[in-house]
Amino acid sequence: MILKAYQNSINIKLKSTAILLFIIVLIQACSSTKYIADYQSIVKQVTIDSVDAKFEEQAYNYVQKDIRPASKLSIQVPLYNLFNTKDGRYKTSDIKPFGTPPAILDSTLVEISRTQIQKFLKSKGYRQAEVKAAIQVADKKAEIVFTAKPGPAYFIDKLSDSIPNPNIKNLYKSNRAAITHLHTGMQYDEDSLTYEREQIYRIMKENGYFYFLRPYVNFDVYGAEPTSKTNKIDLNLNVTNPNDGEHKQFDIGYTHMIIAPNPDGFPDSVRYKLNKDTVNGIIFTDFSKRYRRNPIVRYDFLKQGDLYDIRNENLTYDRLYELNIFKNVKIDYYRRDSTSNKINTVIQLIPQKVMSNRVEGEVPFNGGTVGFTIGNTYTNNNIFRGAERFELQVKGGLQSRIGNGAKPFSDIYQRDFSISSSITVPRLMIPFYNPVLGGNGMPHTTFASSYIYALQKDVSVRRIFINSITYDWFETKSKLHSFTPLNFEYRFGYLDPNVDEQTVLNNLYYSTLLGRKDLTLGMKYTYTLNANKLNEYRSFVYLRAGMDIAGNMLQGVSSLIGKKGDPANNNPARIFGLPFNQYMRPEVDLRWYKHLGGERQFIARLNAGVAYAYGNSVLTGIPFEKQFFAGGSSGIRAWQARTIGPGNYDRGLLRSDTLRRAFFGLDQLGTMRIETNFEYRFTVAKKFLGATLKGAAFVDIGNVWNLRRGESILVSNPALDEQTIFRLSKLAQQLAVGTGVGLRYDVQYFVFRFDVGLKLKDPQFAGSDQWVISKFLSGASDFKNSYNATHGPDTYRFIQYNFGIGMPF
What we know:
With 809 residues, this protein is an alpha+beta fold. Among the domains are: 38-149, Roll (Ubiquitin-like (UB roll)), CATH 3.10.20; 155-239, Roll (Ubiquitin-like (UB roll)); 251-351, membrane protein fhac (Ubiquitin-like (UB roll), Roll). Helix 1 (2-29) packs across helix 3 and helix 5 packs across helix 6. It starts with a helix and ends with a strand.
């Protein structure tokens, strides 16, 4: 009772603190002007008049940031006021990195903005543009109005070029249609000229012109003077020659690839010990003595005799870095003499630390349980001297009931242990076939093996062995394929001999899942689109779609050897004396990332999957580990993982206290899942304890269901079993809805995440009682006490805290 009172006290304090903070922020939002001097004003609005609508947003970007007002819905300024005011004034020292200071009027910045907007309009073809600025101040609040007189737009009338080198002229002409933004009749735009210059530079560097520079490309502009009587412009493109003659194309000579002795780099003494043997145009010198030649030189795309192409240089950089064994890659070139058209390549590689060890842990808890998980991961990035990555992970944890005066970990009801290892080779190892890939990303072959042990006190023990081979390769930089042609799983479990017989009968489906012994032999395929854009602020669609199929091959083998079995009558076919699983499990994760400017982003996500058993598993169903769950730090964050559904399932329907206690903590699973998430992300503070502090607000919706009768933990009660089945007509009443806010501490390489989720709608209840937010706002204590009395040892929590590493999606 002391512990429960303590928890209630914590919840009350948290609610009070949140409400108090909200009130303070509201007050601060209305009072920025009182912290500034009498001669100062805060900019509340900036308006740009008489600018073409298609250029308004770009023109606004030329307004100096320090005089741009924050959005009316933003809490950045109130946060800044909360932490950076003292004695009725803004602090001038010891500034805390929270929020953003208000936009204080500065006439110098207004003039700079006016000039920049005017230059921008002229660059867009309004050669006679003039911009004036007006400032209106009232009650220490300022409004800035930039009024433009753009004048007539200038258009391109004629295009010509002066390219004395015939080879370059032909190269430009053959590529012009695909690269140019310039055409007669278009409005003059300096950005189009810059783009043309950049494209010509790129084409030259891709076609052997190693020493070509951007300044060799320039334009003559005729008729663009503001005093011109016509609004037509003639453009002439120039690609000039260097002072010492014409531009030349260069071939790649030999490549000298040198690996430093250690991560400290190259000492001067090594230059006299270089290898002299050339194999396939490459001289390989490894002063560290750690690496085999072929796995490294395989990703040198600067081949002897090929025309120099900057794309191959960038490709070599990317792949050598992706081997994950070098901390620095440097590519230089040199000519033996000034008359040669060959450039030799020198690739200097500095190795990084080969071995690493990482310890991770978490403490999952709710009102009725506490536990911990701890894991250790050892990594060797060069175990066979060919950039093969070996990883060994050991992980264990337990969960304990608390409450009713019990001490933490005095009543442990769940124990988990796993050990896994994998070897990842940076190429596709396919028998009788050796594909050369890597143009868009590093291909990998991964051999993995793992053992999992799970104990549910007084209920069951499960053991699982898993072995697999997986191939990963890139079709393009944005399209990743992952294919597992061999996925072998051997699972065996048994029920605790002391488990109550009535408990087994009332939870027959769960008991069957936990106690089964079987084999799985199948394959998996996953397609991923735009994963390379996840850390960028841009608008795009992300897709991850996969299929897991098992049992078809074993079904064929059992038919050939005459052991078909009779699955419909609970007599499945067997291999090596064990039944095998047969199912298909498609899953899709679809997201829309919308960039809202700056570091603001909106994400909408749909995650759905189905697990369908057939053939040899038509009665035994989907394996326990292959079923879906809802909730958790990357799902519906107002619930702990595996505590939602299926459907309208309510643990209170298990009327026996003994029964509920025996199955306390068992996962609530289903053979179908639908989840949607909506999240708004923004930056709170750029510099916060050496990192960036970001915030998020979210709404999560979803649940899990069963596809067929008999797949529920309530199989012994057909009426209750029906509540777990997916029915489109009942979808709305079976959805869980949660909301919340979160903080992300971004240290560049890691993101530490803390989310607070609040339940809005809980499908385990009926009718209007599902909207538990009303109970949270009024009568929360009585509601929780009533729930605990009928669902114990389960306890109800309106708020769920989630800690994690990395973004939720």
